[in-house]
Amino acid sequence: MSTTKTNLLWKSFKGVRKLNTINSDTELGADEMLNVMLSKEKSGQNRSIRSAGWFDSFMEADEDVIRLFSANLSGYTYTNQLIAFTKTSGHINAYIIQDDRGTALQDKIAEFPLASDVTDVCMTQFGDRLVMAVAFGTNNLGFVTYSATSLSTAGWTQMGATSWWYRVNTITESSTSAAVTNITSIIPYRSRLAITGRTTYTENSVEAIYGIWFSEAGNPINFSHDYAESATDTGAFFVEVGEPITKLVEYHGLTGFGMNRSYNIYGTSANDIAVNPLTAKGVKNNAVFVLNGQCVYVDGYSTNVFSMRDNIDNTIGFDAPLGDDIQDYLQDVDDVTINAVGRRVRMMKKSGQSLVYDVDIGEWMIETFVPNARCVTFLNKEIFCNGTTDIYEITSVRGPSSQQTPTEFGYYSYYKTNLIWLDSQTSIKSHILPFAIVLEPQTNNDFYIKFTTDRNVAYTGRITRSGFENIATYSETDTVPADGSKFTDDDEDTEGGVFFRRSANELLVTVTNPPYWRYLTIEIYTTSPGMEFNISGIEAKQTFITDEALDY
After folding, report:
1. Which of 130, 232, 279, 123 is CA-nearest to residue 186?
2. In sequence order, which residues have a C-beta less than 8 Å from that of residue 237 and are 6 or more positions away?
3. Which of 75, 297, 319, 450 suits 208 as a labelling partner, its CA being 20 to 30 A distant?
4. CA–centroid distance for 366 within its chain
5. How would you class 63 by CB atoms within 10 Å of its CB: exposed for 0-12, middle for 13-18, buried for 19 or more?
């Protein structure tokens, strides 16, 4: 029998590049994580993992908040403007939150007489001022601006005695006199406002026309145009596409995404506009984002993530899919939030689960919040609402008022490594020393850890570090106690397990490891709110790899 000796370190784990899949890589990279944050690569060190999924109450409103928007309305005193849209009987109300945190909604800036939801919001230039444009999914657009001068002659309504003005425009297809409905996406484009929508032919008012309407240049409120007149470079116009477009992004000109086909539109007026179909398809709702000049979208048919690129011949190309191993988590993704400062992209699901892509690391993680959450980036923070009176802030650090939501499996944070087999799938591994867990300084740790071998033997322990107290407990039986572990009171407690003396510098805890294994997984998890972990590494020193065969 031959024997070699090696050390199993955290750096031999692949990280969270893949989820929910076992592949044929050397280390079978299939780590899973729920409500876990992965640190950036440190020079000369390995990454750490820590609990995530925390959110704090940002403020409480008087009405149910259905959508948030980070605005920049010129002329208003406060430069940092968070807009909260609320829905009451027969109205969509808009409030401006002047500070980064408040106790109640402050100034009411608009009262749109509509009962429909807000489908999209953007900022656009109107004359010498910035205007907020709001789509409601119907045939109406809302506009809000701040002006010290009267706008009543232009059809605007003043909100109270303040300088806030708003108006509602009914969008009508001029050539057919039919309403443009289903406005789901709006975006500024080349001094115009572009909207998606649907209209019908006048003859039967049944046959649908899907397209993108462009406002008059310099006037985002006027969509009137007439095909009987010659086209002008500044007039409003319309381009027809073959199916509903749910999302517009400014990429390679303008790109509209739909379920069965997407379209690239370029040109600045009715005289030079061109529409080219793309193979991008299956995009639902807002599952598109642009970061660092690259456009990325979620394909609802293949449940995958694709990125687009500009080819040398001025066409659009498509890169290999980014999400082969996260397809189970891409079902029903319908909203996207870009945190440009943290370079993280969050894809929200109605279940409350969100898939987060870290651009710098190139890895995915899953965080769970409350259902029906809509998220926005405001002052480098991720703020979300969920149709209640509360507005929340997503935070990576647990504070006194932090909340956390369990996953469907009952975990508040969960990390599972890939299958670890070191240098061989068949060789037997054994240890002289127990597994050592290195904790990050100045953090609280209270979590369970479980080792599962190829023989399906589970060894579960709980690690607790709060303040200066370090306790490690474990169970080596096949039948794990109901609470998952036994607690250690002091070094005289022979039943409990391992005792660690109180020390301000004690950052190392050990847990008895499986005696023999061919390959194993390590699971780190919490089962109650308030439990958390911040771990920089796991070590198993003097791990012996032999060619001995166990009797399986």
Report:
1. 123
2. 213, 214, 225, 231, 269, 270, 273
3. 297
4. 9
5. middle
Other C-beta atoms closer than 10 Å to the C-beta of 451 total 23
**Cα 143 from Cα 166, distance rounded (Å):** 5
For 161, residues 6+ apart whose C-beta sits below 8 A from its C-beta are: none
For the chain, the average pLDDT equals 79
**pLDDT score of 335:** 87
DSSP string for 34-70: ESEEEPPPPTTS---EEE--EEEEEEE-SS-EEEEEE
Whether 502 shows a pLDDT value over 60: the answer reads no
Kindly tell me if the per-residue pLDDT of 78 is higher than 70.
yes
Q: In what order do the strands lie in the sheet with 81-88?
A: 65-71, 81-88, 91-97, 107-112
Given CA atoms 276, 281, 284, 288 in this order, what sign does their dihedral have? negative
Question: What does 127-178 look like in DSSP terms, one character per residue?
Answer: TTEEEEEEE-SSSEEEEEEE-SS--GGGT-EE-TTSSEEEEEEE-EETTTTE
The C-alpha atoms of residue 199 and residue 244 are separated, in whole angstroms, by 11
Which of 62-76, 463-477, 502-516 ranks highest by mean pLDDT? 62-76
For residue 315, what pLDDT band results from cuts at 50, 70 and 90? confident
Instruction: Please give the distance of CA 47 from its chain centroid, rounded to a whole number.
Output: 22
- Residue 471: is its pLDDT beyond 60? no
Give the CA dihedral 280, 282, 287, 289, nearest 10 degrees: 0
d(CA 27, CA 320) in angstroms, rounded, equals: 23
> Looking at per-residue confidence, does 471 or 290 come out higher?
290
pLDDT at 343 over 90: no
Closest CA to 393 of 102, 120, 48: 102
Count H helices and E strands in the chain, helices first.
Answer: 0, 46
